[in-house]
Amino acid sequence: MIMQVKTFSFSKDNKSLKIIILAVLFSFLSACSSAPNALTYYLLHATNGASVLEREAKQSIVLDKVTLPEYLKHRGLVYQTSDTNLHISTSHLWAEPVDEGLTKALASALKANNVALVRPDHYASEEAPHISLYINDFVSTYEGEVIFSGQYSISRASEAASIHSFTFKAPLSNDGFASSIKAMRSAIEKLAIDMNITINQQS
User: How far apart are CA 74 and CA 94, in angstroms?
Assistant: First the structure.
């Protein structure tokens, strides 16, 4: 009888020890799985360009607004994984809202043609054309390119607004979001050239 009691007591302690070990292991695994991923932030505009001074520009353009699709209002970078699916990253993030980065990148691209992009609250002559930009898509895709599409309207004080659609593509040189950002900048440069040509044709 004494031996039976001792044997039962040992089995009970062994079972309790296993439960404690499993609880500790589970807690450790839970802590690892819940640990935050390292975050990487990206700028859409390049920071190595000189600022545009209005007095140096041959022409000024007033950017009234930029309208984005809903999926570009998130801080996570977006990648199109198929014809119907988008992936929004939780660890690769924009350092600033996309509309702000887009405005800065467009201003930098326009300055190459001595065109100053100014905001409505900045000084501009009454003859300066006003632009509103509507983005349909601005995303890197599973086909290895960035798609940039939408419309922009041009209006002047004495004329009705004209609407101009655009679609630009820029290839990705490598995999990864850094390559996507460079391709996005290239697509914005194409839009700047298109805007400048259109405005000069209407002058």
Answer: 9
Q: Are 148 and 170 a contacting pair, CB within 8 Å?
A: yes
Report the distance separating Cα 48 and Cα 63, nearest Å: 22
pLDDT of residue 33: 47
User: Which residue bears the tokens 């993030």?
Assistant: 93
Q: Tokens 């300055």 — which residue?
A: 111
Token pair recorded at residue 65: 């607004």
- Alpha helices by DSSP H, listed for 35-132, are 98-111
Residues 44, 130: Cα–Cα separation, whole Å: 23
Q: Mind listing the pLDDT tens digit for each residue in 157-166?
A: 777 889 999 9
Residue with tokens 């439960």: 19
Measure the CA–CA gap between 157 and 140, rounded to whole angstroms: 37
Angle CA 42–45–48, to nearest 5: 105
Mean pLDDT confidence for 117-134: 84
What pLDDT digit, counting tens, does each position of 52-75 carry? 444 467 788 999 999 999 999 999
* Segment holding 26, helix H or strand E: helix 2-34
User: Which residues are CB-contacts of 185 (< 8 A; sequence separation ≥ 6)?
Assistant: 44, 45, 46, 105
